[in-house]
Amino acid sequence: MEQINNISQVTAFDSNSLLTIVHFEGLSNEVIYEIFEYLDFFHIYEIFFNLNTRFRNLLISSTLPIKINLSSLSKSNFEYYYRNMIIPYQHRIQSFYLSNLFIVDLFLSSFSLISKLIQLQTLIIDKIQSKYLNNFLNDLFFLPHLSSLVLICKNYVPNRNNFYKQVFRLSSLKYCKLSIHALHPPEQLPIATNEVSPIVHLVIKDTINLNELFAFLSYVPQLHRLSIDRRSTCNMQMNVCSIVLNHLTHVSLNLRDVTFDDFEILVKKNLFHQVQVLYILTHGDIVYLVANRWQFLILSHMPYLRIFDIQHRVIINATNREIYPDLFDQFESLFWFERQWFFAYHIHETGVTADGN
């Protein structure tokens, strides 16, 4: 009750600077509901449900959306939470966050609830085991309002292609962040035929081959933002198809194992023609530091680019030390100054890092 006493009255001043005392229970239902929006539902239930009849009725009769955060609960607390707060109010749950490994396993192995959360819009599950993925993703198919999905897999995903196909068939999804480790070497994802996804913002933490990138993009024709955080690779031959992405404006790629020549092939397919913001991380291939190659690529295939951020890391030794200052100087021409793109490089004893934005 100490927590209740601390909020039992509110002190305010009116326009004539007269002291006004307002008791919390004297607030209107509308104001109390607004306050509830800033509190975790678990705390709301614990504090107010058994306080008095009015507050209990406020919780029972409310239509306000509920945000569930199960990041740190014991087994007993989770079972209490599930029985008293999740099950009775499942029709109001709008956001669901699971990050405790024990609770994730307990929830997915013991309860079949996800498909019943008909108002769910945002779902975040950290440390999900791959053995649950197939049934779990099938349940998500029945959620008509699910627009934001974050899945971070704890272990290797044996059927990687099936995983991605199940995600791409979710009909209302707009934001999607996926972090997986596939068994190597993974089978390449096929090009989309009939089913496409409404995703507009896609973040993938997975090793992606540039050949396969075209397959990924064929599933998301409405894409606005793309980020591949884990390293990209490339085969010697790129058998690519024609894909039109009229809305893709923001791209972030880890190109650690991709040469500039292969990246250039990708850009020349006009996948990035509408791109305005480009972040790339590269390693090793010195051609990434040839300013004229970038100038041609930008003028010809990325005409709307306004933010260009490249981080390139190389190992300097006695045989190549002299060539880098000349390469860096090429980025000081009028082309780069007109766009207000300025570059800096940092030399350490073990190597060099070149950053530009």
Could you walk me through the main structural features you see in this protein, from its secondary elements to its overall organization?
The chain has 357 residues and is α/β, with parallel strands linked by helices. The chain has a domain at 1-64. The protein is built from 13 helices and 16 strands. The strands form three sheets. It has a twelve-stranded mixed sheet with strand order 3-4-5-6-7-8-10-12-13-14-16-15. Strands 1-2 form a two-stranded antiparallel sheet. α7 (133-140) runs parallel beside α8 (160-168). It is elongated, with a radius of gyration of 26 Å.
What would the average pLDDT be, to the nearest integer? 83
What level of helicity do the residues show? 25-40%
The percent range for strand residues is 25-35%
- Cα-atom radius of gyration: 26 Å
Biggest sheet: strand arrangement:
3-4-5-6-7-8-10-12-13-14-16-15
Shape: elongated
Q: What structural class results from the helix and strand content?
A: alpha/beta
Show unreliable segments: 1-6
User: H/E order of the elements?
Assistant: HEEHHHEHEHEHEHEEEHEEEHEHEHHEE
N- and C-termini, Cα separation? 55 Å
- The total beta strand count reads 16
Biggest sheet layout: 12 strands, mixed
Q: Please tally the helical runs, counting DSSP H or I stretches of 4 or more residues.
A: 13
Protein name: F-box domain-containing protein
